[in-house]
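Hello Y.,

Per our agreement to keep a running log of every chain we model this quarter, I'm adding this entry. I've kept the format consistent with earlier entries: sequence first, then predicted structure.
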Amino acid sequence: MQCLEFNSVTKKYGDKYALNNVSFSLECNKSYSLIGPNGAGKSTILKIISGLISPDAGNVSIKGNKPGSDEAKKITGYLAEEALPYINLTVKENLLYIGSLRKVNDLEKRISFLIDLFGLDSYLNSMVSNLSRGTKQRLSLALSIIHNPEIVLLDEPFNYIDIPTQEKIIKYFKTMNSTFLISTHVMSIAENFTENIIMINNGNIIFNGKLSEIEEMKSGNETIESLIARMMS
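Predicted structure for the entry above:
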């Protein structure tokens, strides 16, 4: 079953194509990495799916719902690149506020779980404005999944987060039974978490398939990173 359809989408900023007739679909309960250099169109894709911006042409369907609709928002979690929680609230207040907006059942239990998962127990009463960038990122990531969304959209989610914490979070993600679309330029994250790769460059999809297919395309001792760089050139 397809959870998301991204059909013939075009988006321009001025005279530049951010996306040029881009199409792909996501199967429910599968994980996908969106790979590409800076400015390739990755963030634009996530913003369109989340309903923050509209395409110039084409359409997007989230389980039959339009991006930005109440129905789509209920089942979608989104983390923007460089996301920032409410800086004038504490960590606990952020979790309570967003959890209430999301109408999370048994909110205190969910918050307790996320505090442990993201290592936030020492910062509960700290103002977000006083936190390190890594701690802010962990909180932002927790807020994006507080309602246990069916579809999770993450833009460079592990920026500033140490590797042991990354591995702990990824281990949990694998148990969520959600559909993931993660934008990343770190191939090791894609390899560790997702089985499907969508590569984009200059607003065009240049590969859409299994990670195993990319492995088979390598020449000799070529690394995946080198192969991808060659495909992007």
